[in-house]
Description:
The protein is α/β, with parallel strands linked by helices. The chain has helices spanning 4-9, 19-36, 43-53, 118-122, and strands spanning 62-63, 67-69, 75-77, 82-83, 87-90, 95-97, 102-103, 108-110, 112-113, 127-128, 131-133, 138-139, 144-145, 150-151, 156-157, 162-163, 171-174, 179-183. It has a single domain (4-183), classed as UDP N-Acetylglucosamine Acyltransferase, domain 1. The protein has four helices and 18 strands. β17 and β18 (179-183) form a beta hairpin. It is globular.
Amino acid sequence: xxxxxxxxxxxxxxxxxxxxxxxxxxxxxxxxxxxxxxxxxxxxxxxxxxxxxxxxxxxxxxxxxxxxxxxxxxxxxxxxxxxxxxxxxxxxxxxxxxxxxxxxxxxxxxxxxxxxxxxxxxxxxxxxxxxxxxxxxxxxxxxxxxxxxxxxxxxxxxxxxxxxxxxxxxxxxxxxxxxxxxxxxxxx
Length: 188
């Protein structure tokens, strides 16, 4: 029989009040509090906390506090990724972010979702869908990335966009819902 955590990571309905999950979220909240309370000149302390908070991050992760996430351990992050102020990652299941990807302030990444059926919602169960963001992506400020979305390499998501569907590589996409506006052609 699967644990609630295994169900959560597999995208199945799970009980978010499970003791193991509650304990993991508490640990994460304490690390986030410590991170967000660091001063700009405490770079070594920030690096130590980030390594514990997001153990699956590549070299050069630059995260500007305040920052918030559910678990941290469910993020798989490439090298030289940048999060600007006030980003939120609800990493109930996996969030994969490619190298050299940039997030503007207030970007929100949500893997968590809830059943459409009100009886299931009332039972307190929820589920999640993984998010994949490619390499060299730029997500503009206050964009929201919804559960289950994939964003291709080198794509730009316009500020304030709500990404509800997959977006291919090498495009500029924007709006609510986010749609491809144009292709990004390489410089000749």
